[in-house]
Amino acid sequence: MTVKRNQPELHRRIDELFTYTRHFPVNAKRTETGHGRTTTWTLRAREATEVIRQDWPGVSWVIELVVTGTRKGKRYRHVHYFVSAKRTSRCDTSLRTSANALLRLVRQRWSIENQWHWARDTQLREDAHRYANRVGMPLLSFLRTIAMNLLRMSGFRSIRAGLQRMAHDISGMLALGGFSPAENSA
């Protein structure tokens, strides 16, 4: 599970753990070049502390993924945190994979986060919404999903570009849904 800043206490504790701890039993690093950039993925993981386990039952491992590199001559650095829950059927806290396999798994998860959830969070500002009742949350989430899928199916690679292009084009919005304005005028 990805730990974001909307979980401030857990995020702070994990950040402190990776800032002040020197030994990590799981380490992996991989560098890739392509698409006009060089990216280095550095993963460190260790068992969750007792304090984290007490406050967040089921968490057994904490993982840090640091992504550094250059894109178009500019340097970047992003830090992502993840938690891994122990299996309820076995109730063990051992990490049953190699460090490189764990890095691959986290990168796959991060890729999904980047392609899907990032757009929902930044372009549609889903995390910023505060609903008075929880009844409307699933409906609005469903509508956002429809909007994103319609934009992608219509060839928009960028959700932001699609939203900007379609924001004031009622006919275009209807066309995305398979309707024509002539059908609705009767």
What this model shows, in words?
- The protein is of the alpha+beta class.
- It has 2 domains: 2-122, CAC2371-like domains (S-adenosyl-L-methionine-dependent methyltransferases, Single Sheet); 136-181, no CATH class.
- It is 43% helix and 25% strand.
- It contains 7 helices and 5 strands.
- A 5-stranded antiparallel β-sheet has the order 1-5-4-3-2, with helices on both faces.
| Helix segment tally | 7
Distance between the termini: 50 Å
Alpha-carbon Rg, integer: 21 Å
pLDDT averaged over residues: 77
Give helix and strand order, one letter per element, not per position.
EHEEHEEHHHHH
Q: How would you characterize the largest beta sheet?
A: 5 strands, antiparallel
For this structure, what is the CATH homologous superfamily of the largest domain? CAC2371-like domains
Task: Summarize it.
By secondary structure, the protein is of the alpha+beta class. The chain is built from seven helices and five strands. The chain has two domains: 2-122, CAC2371-like domains (S-adenosyl-L-methionine-dependent methyltransferases); 136-181, no CATH class.
Write the layout of secondary structure elements.
Elements: E1 2-3, H1 8-20, E2 26-34, E3 37-47, H2 50-55, E4 59-71, E5 74-85, H3 99-122, H4 136-153, H5 159-166, H6 170-176, H7 181-184
Features:
single chain; 186 residues; alpha+beta; S-adenosyl-L-methionine-dependent methyltransferases; five-stranded antiparallel beta sheet; 5 strands; 25% strand; globular
